[in-house]
Amino acid sequence: MMNINWFPGHMKKTRELLKEQLKLIDVVYELLDARIPLSSRNPEIDEIITNKPRVVILNKADLASEDATNRWVTYYKNKGITAIPVNTISGKGLRQVLAEGEAVVKEKMEALLRKGRRERAVRIMMVGIPNVGKSSMINKLAGKKSAQTGDRPGVTKGKQWIRLKGNLELLDTPGILWPKFEDQEVALKLAFTGAIRDQIMDVDSLALKLIEHLMKEHSKNIEERYSLAAVGETPLETMEMIAKSRGCIIKGGEFDYTRTANIILDEFRGGKIGRITLEKPSEIE
Known about the structure:
The chain has 285 residues and is of the alpha/beta class.
């Protein structure tokens, strides 16, 4: 099993910064990856944001199973939290995200006005682990390029207030991740979706693990994507069948495992193997 521990010092500082800045905030947007809503959560988030109103954003919903996403929306609704599936590329769900930000604090804002306070923008903080699409989301909500984006985890730096559409103002803070992955399954799922750099682990092993996951419930997706009559008996056999199907053969007729692994990971992350969710609400104890 791969052992992944990744907690740069800046993340500890970020957590302290979040707690400090929360005093200025009316509502928290918690950004999750719709394919792995459990693994893309920071387990300390409840403790960090305490009793602040919260809106959950299920990002990359276009890559996740629609049925599974609906179940997650219901799961959060039962907890008294609105969860909104979003696709930042098409913009689907963004209007609802803006409207909900104002709706959850409407009574508080009206009470302040009654007390004679001046009307002000609703102040929002968006929290999420690195590489869950935070910068792209902020840019879409602001209607302009306001946050640094990058395809490497954790490129957002510093803190700044960003004016969003509507009467909203957002405090941009860096993404946060927990100190250690106590559950290696969590680490694997983060790696499958690209939230952890591929450079820190063996890509061949990662792709094999992904195939193992997909063979349990999504073997049809593998067969259709790679034109296979059936998946193999083992993840390795399936990987070799994919290598053959894609012409990933090197001199002497050997399989090019690394090239095959990169194809599988890229195509899973791009939704080409299908709209797949790796976690369901029923998995929560």
